[in-house]
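Q: Start with the shorter request: fold the first protein.
A: Done. Sequence, then structure:
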Amino acid sequence: MNKNLGQLTKKKQQLDKFRPLSKDIIKNLEEWLKVELTYSSNAIEGNTLSRLETAEVIEKGVSATISGKALKDQLEAINHTKALELIKNLVEQRKGHQFVKEGDIKSIHKTILTGIDDQWAGKYRQTDVFIRGVGVEFPRPNEVAYKMKQFVEWLESQQESHPVRIAADAHFKFVSIHPFVDGNGRTARLLMNFILVLNSYPMAVVRNEDRTKYLEAVNKGQTKGDLQSFYDLMELSVERSLDAYLNAVEGKLPLGPLTKGIRPSDDVLEKKLLKIGELAKATEETIHTLRYWTKQGLLEVREYTKGGYHLYSPSMINRVKKIRQLQDEERLTIIEIKRRFSNNK
């Protein structure tokens, strides 16, 4: 076992000492991961929703008011969340990665594409696939079903390898078959996480901020047979989630978005961050107003709750008061206020 996998095993053993986790901790972690996984996985594939917009869609569904964004982007967020719930249910049925069925993979894919491309949701492609600039030959359409049968048989045979390596290999092998017309990347990452959870590891987030590294690592594996960069990135993703779980169960630190790392900066730890309701109370503004100002870019979100909602620095109290002052005394518009703040930086 290499050093990275050994480190992951030790951290999992630390986490196992706290099992079973309390219902509150599980709920908070799942809500946090739901936003991180959905945002990052969809963004890697070109979805334009921000993390905050993704959280709003997860909470409100298609009724969420996301201006200037395609309905397809919102449906992708909703469907990914449903796919995570599906995996949660499948984990109870399968009990181990050796028991994952081909139908499970099709069901995950069908959930991802429902309402977006119903014709091919959960169905193998019947056309060749080419990805511009990749230079990889994927199996012909008439080979896909057989390749997927082999894939499931391979997964069933994996008894001795480290679970994280099995999950990473499954991810790579699946995306290299590219069995579906669309949604292969999202399905591959969900399948990887399905296998991780079946082996009592937390789900891992492949961050959108690592998109270029991720795609290059996959391509390097496909064209040169060198998977080390891919393994390194997947193992780092698993370690981040393990660290987040350990922090949560030990009550050390609040969870934040993975783009900022697991640990908040020291100045955040020294100050109490404010929920939007607390900021509203401190400034005598409505929550609706604060949400609107945040969406317009007048207020900065410093961290997020476990469910992906706003946490503000105490410095935003003065910012809110300044915005109100500029509106009441100088009659400035939102655009003019943004320009004023920009000029003062």
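Q: Next, the second protein, separately.
A: Sequence, then structure:
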Amino acid sequence: MIRVLIVEDMRLTRDGLVALLEQQPDITVVAEFGRNPGLVPLVAAVRPDVVVINADVMTGQTFPVVADLQASVRPLSVLILTDPRKPVVFPAWRRAGAPSFLVKDVSSAVLAETVRRVAGGERVIDPQTAVAALMSADCPLTARELEIAGLAADGASVGEIADKLFLAPGTVRNHLSKIIAKTGARNRIDAIRMARDAGWL
């Protein structure tokens, strides 16, 4: 039996994903989760085979969260559901266990089969996601800058970002200044808007 944990903040969508996967005779949903804080301890407690994450839940933070999950629970496969209308930025992934990617508008049969493939150790990258990644190849922001921009977009202050990422406040401010400079924005709010419009967040 393949044990799955679903991360999705929209209750109706989450219930739908649970129902779809529970219909499969070889898949069981062992837990579901709405937001990022507390996810790592939950995964460590229930030890799923596959974590299915809606990328929109963790704007700009998906890859750091995946790294935290895989550092705490091994082996663990991660399937990230992406919006086919948004370009995707893939940071460098230099170790085994890189996440898989699937667009969110696939059929339930494709989702279930992808979960099986990922649980079996295969890395899956949906063709639409791969094309989206090529479209976003000109993103000037680093993975860390995207992470900070995502937290700022969620309303986190410099101090809150620093605490969450274990950085000095001055380092966070420097990153924010670089984000503004790289995007050619007038200020932090404008930079976040531009990053969202470009599909980087």
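Q: Describe the second briefly.
A: The longest strand covers residues 27-33. The mean pLDDT is 83.
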